[in-house]
Design a protein that fits this description.
Helix content is 54%, strand content 13%. The protein has a five-stranded antiparallel β-sheet with strand order 2-1-5-4-3. The protein is elongated and about 70 Å long. The mean pLDDT is 88.
């Protein structure tokens, strides 16, 4: 199942199935900087993949709960699974945060969760998490999900490396041709826009398609959009 992941969308589908099959409500994958500070101090910035509802993310970040999160602090020091009860975590927060955090997580019926810290091949620290309101995890479940988290991050890392490599193989002109194609322009129209001949436009499109490992121009455009080449 994990070996079939070729895109972040694939990873989300695999995570969703795993999350539901173990009785959890939400999942996320976060990337942890060495220390949280400034604008990075939000789940919206830390999470690379997440099924948290937009309202939960917005309210969590609006309350600044990541800044004093006992969980995020512990994840920088720990390599074993971090199982937690939401009430216990919230009670250790400073000031008025315990009441705000308790109200927020209670609204979404979240009583417990688990984080699995994982390093990728580049040495970056990530954590795969599941949250819900189920019974405590068994030793077998912890072992299974820990292995899952390690393999998931490894596969996502491979996909990321492949995407970066694909980005680097196209030159500016090839990207330009694919961009105009994405906007619905035909080869004759692109030729007029760029000042190139129609033959040259088709040549660039063909080369770009081959470089991206795609079988046709439409696939190449879709892949280029996913890589963010047009932003």
């Amino acid at each position: 199942m994990i070996g079939s992941i070729q895109t972040i969308f694939d990873a989300m589908q695999v995570l969703r199935k795993t999350c539901l099959s173990h009785g959890f409500r939400y999942f996320s994958v976060i990337t942890l900087p060495s220390a949280v500070s400034g604008d990075d101090n939000t789940i919206a910035n830390l999470a690379t993949i997440s099924s948290w509802p937009p309202e939960l993310i917005s309210d969590y970040d609006g309350l600044g709960l990541a800044r004093n999160s006992p969980i995020l602090d512990q994840l920088r020091k720990q390599i074993t699974p971090l199982v937690f009860e939401v009430d216990a975590v919230n009670s250790s927060r400073p000031g008025e945060e315990p009441a705000s955090a308790a109200e927020l997580f209670g609204r979404f019926d979240l009583t417990m969760g688990v984080y699995f810290p994982v390093h990728d091949s580049h040495g970056l620290r990530h954590a795969v998490s599941f949250m819900g309101s189920r019974a405590p995890l068994s030793v077998e479940e912890l072992s299974t999900l820990s292995l899952f988290a390690t393999m998931l991050i490894e596969q996502i890392s491979k996909v990321s490396v492949a995407d970066q490599a694909a980005k680097s193989v196209l030159n500016d002109r090839e990207v330009e041709i694919l961009k105009w194609t994405a906007e619905g322009k035909t080869s004759p129209e692109i030729a007029r826009i760029t000042g190139l001949s129609e033959h040259t436009v088709n040549h660039y499109a063909t080369i770009a398609t081959k470089k991206l490992g795609c079988s046709n121009r439409t696939q190449a455009v879709v892949y280029a959009i996913r890589l963010g080449l047009f932003t």
